[in-house]
Design goal:
Elements lengths: L8 H6 L6 H25 L9 H49 L9 E4 L5 E4 L1 H21 L14 H8 L4 H18 L5 H26 L4 H26 L3 H22 L12 H15 L18
Antiparallel strand pairs: 1-2
Helix pairs in contact: 2-8, 2-9, 3-4, 3-7, 3-8, 3-9, 3-10, 4-6, 4-10, 6-7, 8-9
Length: 322
Amino acid sequence: MIVYENPSWIRLLLIVRGSSIRHTWKRVVFTTALACVVTYLHESKGMFHDNLTMAPFSLIGLALGIFLGFRNNTSYDRFWEGRKLWGRIVNTSRTLTRQLLTLIHSPDRGASYTSTKADGGLVVASDFQRRMVYRVIAYVHALRLHLRDQDRLEEVKEFLEPGDLESIRGELNRPIALLQQLGDEVRQAWDRGEINAYHVSVLEASLTEFTNVQGGCERIKSTPIPFSYNILLHRIVFLYCVGLPFGLVSDVTIITPIVVLLVSYAFFGLDAVGDEIENPFGEDDNDLPLSAITRMIEINLRERIGETDLPKLRSAENHVLT
């Protein structure tokens, strides 16, 4: 995600990182160069006189603008829904951690991990509770890797015991496997009498929320905007921008390249923006900063079990927060 702190109006005009021009400049240069050729032939050779008028381009341009606006709204809805789903992941991970620390009673287990309450007292976290919280942290990191199609188990290694790590190595959906492990641990704790029967459903509700949110993220990722819709839009935009100088040159003559430059930059740019934010879980400059979000969750949860040797929040590098 691009991060700039209160950029000036002039700076916004000059910023390249994060703008669509990085993806569209070749197409813009091509159509502008074509407009220059058409203008030269019109002015020096007398070609393209009265061949086309602006009427069809006006009609197509109006429809194309509506078409692009609808498509970009659809892409932004997917982006914003992805951010709301990850907001629910943040809240659910915090809620589940609080439930694990307050609803599970295991006095026979170790108590070397403590956190301080607002009144100065200590909340004791057992080894079992710490292991459960670590598994929640592993889950959010595994979900990020899952949505980005990254096979980097080393990023969750420190939060899982060797046996747990090996058990998910061959899994197709590792986040779901981790939720299963959490559910199994809750059941075993209930069997040992460490969780009240009424509280089992409370913990299960939080695990179910994780499942529902993950399903929403996977729906966005696995169901892109229909390919036929995208290819039709790309073709119309390209043909419109290529044909535009032939319709303009008789009316605007030597300033045709300038008009084509502005129109092609706008249309190609809107097309590229819709493509970039269609999948909000990727690693493009304008995608969601999942690494920063999962790092924040990790810090929050480790603080709850009394740890002080924590990693730092991720910061933007070259104005990009990943």
